[in-house]
Amino acid sequence: MRFRLEWLASYLSGEVPDAALLREKLTSAGFIVESVEGSGAAAILDVEVTPNRPDAMCHRGLAREAAVSLERAFQDAGAGPLAEGATPADQLATVTIAEPLLCSRYSARVIEGLAMRPSAGVEHQRLEALELAVISGPVDATNHVLWDIGQPLHAFDLDKLAKGDDGRAAIVVRRARQGEKLVTLDGVERELTNEHLVIADAEKAVALAGVMGGLPTAISETTTRVLLESAHFDPGAVRRTSRFLGMHTDASHRFERGCDPAATVQGLDRAARLIVRDCGGTVAKGVIDAVARTAEPRRLTLRFERVARFLGMEVPLERCLQILRALGLTCDEAGGLIRVTVPTARVDLVQEVDLIEEIIRHVGYDALPETLPATYVSPHLDPALAREERVRDILAGTGFFETSTYSFVSQKENAPFESVAPGAPMSLQNPLGEPFEVLRATPVLGLLKTATHNIRRGTADLALFEVGRAFGRDTSGPLETRRAGILLHGARTHHFSEPPGAADFYDGSGAVAAVFQGLGAEPPRFAAADLPFLAKGRAARILSAEGKDAGWVGVLVSTLGAEYDLGDAVVADVDLMAIEPLPIPTSIEAPSRFPGSDIDLTVTHRTSVPYRTLHDSVVRGGPPELLSVTATSRYQGEKVPEGFVKTTLHLRFGSPERSLSREEVNAWRDAAAARLLALTETRVDGYEGAPL
Amino acid sequence: MSVPDVQALHVRWLGKKQGLVTALLARLKDVPKDEKAAFGAGVNALKREVEERLAELELAARRNDDAAAEARKAVDVTLPPRPVPVGRLHPLTVVRRRIEDAFRRLGYDVADGPEVETDWYNFGALNFPPDHPARDSFDTFFIKDGGTGDDKLLLRTHTSPVQIRTMLSRKPPIRIVIPGRVFRKDEIDPRHSPVFHQVEGLLVDEGITFAHLKGTLASFASTFFGGRAEVRLAPTFFPFVEPGVDVAVSCVFCKKAGCRICSHSGWIEIMGAGMVHPNVLAAGGIDPERYSGFAFGMGIDRIVMLVHGVPDLRLLFENDVRFLDRRWA
User: Are the CB atoms for A197 and A176 separated by under 8 Å?
Assistant: First the structure.
């Protein structure tokens, strides 16, 4: 927001202040001066005024802050005398507020006998300096008043306003009729709804309240009679209109943030005086003043002891009072209670703490000491966050690069993965664009795009992960789950000593198993699955030991791979909260001192029989001494019938208490072989069985 | 001399049939009686001598053979090592953890909450009235068919809703930091992203003062940046705190002399902060007459850019592995 130094200085005692000094002072009081253009009295300060300070969005208001900061006296000469003619204004126009909740006050003056000329004098220079068009006396005067004291005004051509039955121009503040149309000053025809507050004459809407006037009733070169509007509108009403119509004006900016409800007549008088000075004419007698609600200054009580208790620092009572009074607040102190009357312009001062801020703002934050609170809270570890952090460390420690990708993706990207989302797709009402319209079903979506990017930049061997949320919704509302997305592409490692091996399904399931192991859970199980985005036969559901669905892993289906310009990509998505870590053991046994016994069983079985079936049939019914079962080799080819495969199972037996005898191990081995042979169409090397 | 050579020597000198020393011993019977003892002692001494010499020779020969075998197994140690896969944490994680750790040392717990929030948690409870311009700087993504009013669903624009959720679920004293992903409808450019990350902090207790806030942030800055950082507060406005301040710390990289990192100002603006607004405490079910508190919030992405000189925010979301594979810690 632009401010002219000379204009600010007109409200300060003494010389025009140094722009650099004022810049420093205003900035430390919370009004950041972003730049200073030009020099001397004509310098322009570009100031960031926060939305809670509409009172400082004008020269008089900011000068009040400058006066306190510079320790100068604040002075306001006011409008000066305004000569009025004999004709009473209320014989020329009437004002009715039909929406008293949306407009607390509407004040109007009429000026007759004008000859249109642009503004002159310092006001002309000021408007140009603020890059405002200099148009005609009445319009320039309203702009000047807005930037001077913050009161937005509007000037109607009185003769263009439709008159009521009594022959007077009839101003009504009302809601627009549904579908009512108005061409605004910018030449655009606006279609309004009942939500919008308008100024109407006896027939039609003539202005959007607090936003912009209408073109048909605007001042023109031939205008001789003007009705000046100076009103106070409800911030919400103005905001609804300006947002709905996409119009942001100097007036709406102030009304939305809150104007001084008591400044309407001041604004009229200042404008009328300028108009008559520049365009001649006579101000009709009196103000047509419709008051729906009188603005009472707010009264607050500041407990002086609260200042030190809140700041952690003593500020002498006299200093507190001095600052508050310099800001224009009336203060009476007795027995440690400061009774404060807040000027109506200060819409931001509503509570005791707001007054404490005024004090520390002008004392300066540099004066605050630095202390540490003695608060003690017994520590609490969020298990979900701890789990996420652990998974990041596990995956980064096993060779994966952590990524950070957007939470929203395109509808098209998301669609193939909808079946594994936490719920139905959840879209944005106002996305940045088509590529970002739906919240992702899985973080793997971001990894796929990341892979594409890296491959195009020349890195095709990739191991990526992201720990983040997947989204969906059901009738209960939005659903979010904590996931680890994993992607492998190209070779897992490269070394001159061995041929490169592309990452395959087992690298994916291995990474998933590492996550389970790292979290202290039983190893996951993998169940063959049919998922639309994974290659058939290389896709699995991840199941926790208790059988809970914990995500999926597999090779990306080639059609999707082609869309992302990928070769065989191994992808996985783990639902972190579905993993069930075991309690940390409280009694760890020493490893057995007795040697164990290892044996192999080689089974020929149909390829359609999963390894898991062999494994489970060996384990179930096995003795407590059976410590582990794993697969050590797979063979298909010579001497193995078509459709069959030879799997070698490695069994380890052991006991913490004794050495195992050859006889008992052999018996266990025979029993395990028998269980394997009991499966359909199996043979075990070294054992009798039906021919395959 | 190889091991077989030594074995041949052994046969020649000590062989049971034709060994030279063995032959001498065989002649003992021909030695006159009174010389027998001296002769025998002489031959035994010789035998010991030969045995020792042969043992030495054999040891040397064995060493020699081993060395030859080893030489055949020698490698070029300068060839690249076989890679053991080692990944990396994302810089956003690394820096977030550094921020969290600095606060953990001060006793803060870490908390989080949902990314899809309601209007009330994101705005209403945080003292943003409906239709208020203060919402303008929080350009918000709304969920399609996401309801209306307080329950209207949106993507959280800050992690502050977790402050409310925590206040509603725990009694004071409360002392938490809240890291998390947040969303604002900003176009994607080198300095803006519709997805970014924050760490917020909240402390609520009896007798909490503005000076506590300043001291806490100074302590954080010193831990995080190293060295003794000064804190400078400047008044600003956030609806959920009163007073609200912008927080700058003295540039520890140039000791306030001015450098690239601080844009030659000597100060680095790192966060917003303030005393929790009484309306926010009340919304969190906490009596503002009895308790006070402070809150602060910083952008992790911005701090990554700042401390690592990352020129473009988009690099953090592009995930080029050549970028990720840098020393972030």
Answer: yes
